[in-house]
Task: inverse folding
């Protein structure tokens, strides 16, 4: 640490070079060939390729990371970044041959690409609640919406486009993980870039970490929007440190994640944010062929009382045209009308364009992929094929659990065990994470995709579904909706109260030695609506059975405000004045519980049984 104070910015010397301006006598000399790719120039100068692309953009040159630029452009960039460029002396025929090979390769790529053209990036905004996601989207929409007409009727179709220097960016207007996690779980990768909104006055919060883990699991590049910088208590440097601790290192700290200070309320930094999205899009090299038949993803779908099925489609490749026959999931139809995000009727939608369409036979599932096909016969055939593929996918997905993990490894279906970990307290997460990841073998890597505290919720199930992983809880309750979703989708949830048993079970599963395990099955739930005297010494609960069933003698938990206050068994069950053995959902009943009568209105009775599974 002795030399730290000698530099203005020891963490990111690149930033200092960028500020250095024209070359000085102390500038480092650099030899640049007559033709060089952006990536080669970045490696040569030991700077980020993003810095190179930004410098080229300032000079009016749009280039991606693999594009070749001439000496004039490269030397201008080098000078701007504090270097002293000079032409590299060519090494005779060998160098000429190398340049010839590069040009030949480029010509071949263009030929193979055919009609490929850059397409607008599709962006999702994520982050912690109250950090300004919706306000940021509003600020972008108000100032930059494409083709906004005075007095035009704007309708919400789940996505819209903005324009920056003649280039478009598509925003999914669905803040949160659902925008790509739920859809990716069904086989559709929707988002190209994720904006992570972090309040500069609040910092990294639990939902921020969750958003980071969802973006990383999806393999989506992150652009950080440091929001609320106008507030006096804003502390961007503290937030950057917290982000680094969470595995997101911004450029200022020597990383490769773009970070832009913004204020959605004061409209500060919005233009810079949009420009940097275009830079990241250049790095991603997003291309498509607008001449081919369209394919894409259904991002919203609903039944309109007057118009019938309304489907919002985001075109990924090709162009969608009026009259096209479209198959979306296992539904098909002919497009009768298309509307953009301003409610204007259009006849054609190009790549990365969202449109609302009329003409599907029934409402297609959200997250399903769609394709344009030549005719009705092909549509029916593709529907049948997709139904078969869905059934196959479901059978494979449902098979993944600790119990048959080694079978999956042996057959080559699984090469890593993705774990979503939820614990009761933060202090339990790191010891469990470290213990699990140390169990990795050459054949199978254990990866904790997300670790958090609190109840196991539907977002956890979605992430497990999308990553083909399992959920492990440590003293963590399971939300009833999440349990239903997990059962429906075949996601394994295992809960433990002792760390040793948790790690031991996973270790045995990796070796194929896991013994039969006891699994909890929820049989039913009932809500306490009233309390009355059953005998002189005991109280009974008047309940409404909300799901499943209640059996006399069944194991039961009493939950109050989501906390378990008693575990016992059902002592008696009555329907009006008659004793009954079992009652199903929708019925009212009188219930007594062995060794418990401290009921309160609003308590939830959770009926369960334990089954042994091989």
Result:
């Amino acid at each position: 640490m002795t030399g730290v104070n000698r530099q203005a910015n020891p963490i990111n010397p690149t930033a200092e070079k960028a500020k250095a301006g024209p070359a000085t006598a102390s500038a480092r000399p650099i030899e640049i060939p007559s033709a060089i790719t952006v990536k080669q120039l970045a490696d040569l100068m030991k700077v980020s390729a993003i810095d190179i692309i930004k410098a080229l953009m300032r000079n009016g040159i749009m280039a991606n990371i693999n594009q070749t630029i001439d000496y004039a452009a490269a030397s201008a960039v080098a000078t701007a970044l504090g270097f002293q460029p000079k032409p590299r002396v060519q090494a005779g025929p060998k160098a000429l041959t190398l340049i010839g090979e590069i040009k030949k390769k480029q010509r071949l790529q263009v030929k193979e690409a055919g009609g490929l053209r850059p397409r607008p990036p599709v962006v999702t905004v994520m982050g912690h609640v109250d950090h300004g996601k919706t306000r940021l989207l509003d600020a972008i929409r108000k100032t930059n919406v494409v083709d906004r007409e005075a007095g035009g009727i704007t309708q919400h179709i789940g996505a819209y486009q903005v324009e920056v220097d003649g280039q478009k960016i598509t925003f999914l207007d669905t803040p949160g993980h659902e925008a790509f996690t739920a859809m990716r779980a069904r086989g559709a990768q929707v988002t190209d870039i994720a904006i992570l909104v972090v309040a500069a006055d609040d910092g990294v919060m639990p939902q921020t970490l969750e958003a980071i883990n969802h973006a990383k699991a999806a393999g989506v590049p992150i652009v950080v929007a440091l929001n609320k910088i106008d507030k006096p208590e804003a502390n961007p440097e503290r937030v950057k440190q917290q982000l680094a601790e969470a595995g997101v290192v911004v450029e200022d700290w020597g990383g490769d994640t773009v970070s832009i200070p913004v204020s959605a309320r004061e409209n500060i930094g919005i233009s810079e944010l949009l420009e940097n999205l275009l830079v990241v899009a250049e790095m991603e090299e997003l291309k498509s062929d607008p001449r081919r038949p369209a394919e894409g993803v259904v991002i919203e779908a609903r039944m309109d009382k007057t118009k019938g099925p309304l489907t919002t489609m985001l075109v990924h490749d090709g162009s969608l045209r009026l009259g096209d026959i479209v198959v979306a999931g296992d539904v098909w139809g002919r497009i009768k009308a298309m509307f953009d995000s301003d409610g204007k009727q259009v006849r054609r939608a190009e790549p990365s364009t969202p449109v609302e369409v009329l003409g599907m036979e029934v409402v297609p599932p959200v997250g399903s992929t769609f394709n344009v096909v030549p005719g009705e016969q092909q549509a029916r055939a593709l529907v049948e094929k997709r139904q078969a593929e869905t059934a196959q996918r479901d059978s494979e997905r449902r098979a993944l659990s600790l119990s048959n993990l080694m079978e999956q490894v042996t057959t080559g279906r699984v090469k890593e065990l993705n774990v979503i970990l939820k614990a009761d307290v933060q202090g339990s997460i790191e010891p469990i994470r470290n213990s699990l990841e140390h169990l990795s073998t050459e054949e199978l890597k254990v990866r904790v995709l997300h670790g958090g505290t609190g109840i196991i919720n539907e977002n956890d199930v979605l992430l497990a579904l999308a990553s083909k992983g399992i959920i492990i809880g440590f003293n963590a309750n399971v939300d009833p909706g999440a349990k239903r979703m997990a059962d429906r989708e075949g996601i394994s949830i295992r809960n433990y109260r002792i760390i040793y048993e948790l790690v031991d079970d996973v270790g045995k599963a990796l070796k194929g030695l896991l013994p039969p395990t006891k699994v909890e099955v929820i049989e039913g739930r009932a809500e306490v609506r009233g309390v009355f005297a059953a005998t002189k010494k005991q109280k009974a609960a008047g309940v409404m059975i909300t799901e499943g069933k209640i059996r006399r003698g069944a194991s039961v938990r009493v939950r109050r405000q989501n906390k378990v206050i008693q575990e016992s068994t059902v002592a008696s069950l009555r329907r009006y004045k008659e004793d009954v053995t079992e009652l199903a959902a929708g019925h009212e009943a009188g219930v007594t519980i062995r060794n418990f009568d401290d009921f309160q209105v609003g308590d939830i009775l959770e009926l369960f049984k334990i089954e042994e599974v091989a």
The radius of gyration is 29 Å. The chain has 16 helices and 33 strands.
